[in-house]
Amino acid sequence: MPSLIQYVDDGGDDAQAPPDHWIENDVVRIGSGPGTDLCIAGMEEHTVTIHFADGRYVVYNRTRRIMAINGTTLAPRESACWPNEAILSLNNSKHLRLRAQSDPAPEPRPHAVPPDLRRIDAPTEAAGFKQGWLFWLGPGVMAAVLALACLPRTPLVAPRFQFEHLLQTLERSGSAGRPLEVIAARLQEARAAELRGHRSAALQAYIGLRDYLLRLRSSGGSSDSADMRATLEFVRERLQVLADG
């Protein structure tokens, strides 16, 4: 089992809560910026750094304000040990809990597509149809079809510009409502994981964002905006590319 960083929000806004962060590397950067490993909306770009060394986790406060670990002050630019099950208070309402295992060392994720991916978007009937007709093709034709399937897909070329346009649009519209800020932060988290090659983390982040967007859309009203529909389309495309990869 992995060691995890769990997010706790005293404000009760579960919609913006990031998923539990599986600790894969010795260094974990937390904040709201695109270069962070755990993205939390409303925080500084780089809020804290978590470092695993000598069998324990150490927290570095990267901000100019005071934080706390189980009520003990963590001064700006200072560091302290983060014991298992201890609460790291980033501010008055946002907290993190460390859930370390008996062997607390970082552990790489298994590279598997979460079954949740097929809950809404996966075309299972089409997949079964493909398997059926491939079986009846001759070996030569089947080899040609499989070779074509292995060619790079065009969606891998365009996402950078599509992502940047979406992010700029969401940030410009951020004053229109809090959900757009949450969407922008989650989109950054998912895209950053994808670019770092963390396929499972990217899948998990995109799935979380997709489900959040679907919940907003089902609520109707202003939540079903053109920006959100464009973001949902982008997320579904990235999920398909990652699943096929």
Verbal overview:
The structure is a single chain. With 245 residues, the protein is an alpha+beta fold. It folds into 2 domains: 4-99, Tumour Suppressor Smad4, CATH 2.60.200.20; 117-244, no CATH class. 39% of the residues lie in helices and 18% in strands. It contains 6 helices and 11 strands. The strands form 2 sheets. Strands 2-1-11-10-7-8 form a 6-stranded antiparallel beta sheet, with no helix packed on it. Strands 4-3-5-6-9 form a 5-stranded mixed beta sheet. Strand 5 (48-53) and strand 6 form a beta hairpin. It is globular and about 45 Å long. The two termini are 25 Å apart.
Descriptors:
245 residues, alpha+beta, Tumour Suppressor Smad4, 2 domains, 6-stranded antiparallel β-sheet, 5-stranded mixed β-sheet, 18% strand
Layout of strands and helices, then pairs:
Blueprint: E1 4-9, E2 21-22, E3 27-31, E4 38-39, E5 48-53, E6 56-61, E7 67-69, E8 72-74, E9 79-81, E10 87-89, E11 94-99, H1 124-136, H2 139-149, H3 159-172, H4 178-195, H5 199-219, H6 226-244
Parallel strand pairs: 3-4
Antiparallel strand pairs: 1-2, 1-11, 3-5, 5-6, 6-9, 7-8, 7-10, 10-11
Helix pairs in contact: 3-4, 3-6, 4-5, 5-6
The largest sheet is: 6 strands, antiparallel
Cα(first) to Cα(last) distance is 25 Å
Describe the global form: globular
Question: Would you tell me the structural class of the helices and strands?
Answer: alpha+beta
* Unreliable residue stretches: 112-137, 144-157
**Element-level helix/strand string:** EEEEEEEEEEEHHHHHH
Work out the helix count.
6
Strand order of the largest sheet: 2-1-11-10-7-8
Range of helix content:
25-40%
Cα-atom radius of gyration = 21 Å
Which band does the percent of strand residues land in? 15-25%
Mean pLDDT: 76
- The total strand number stands at 11
Q: How many domains is the backbone divided into? A: 2
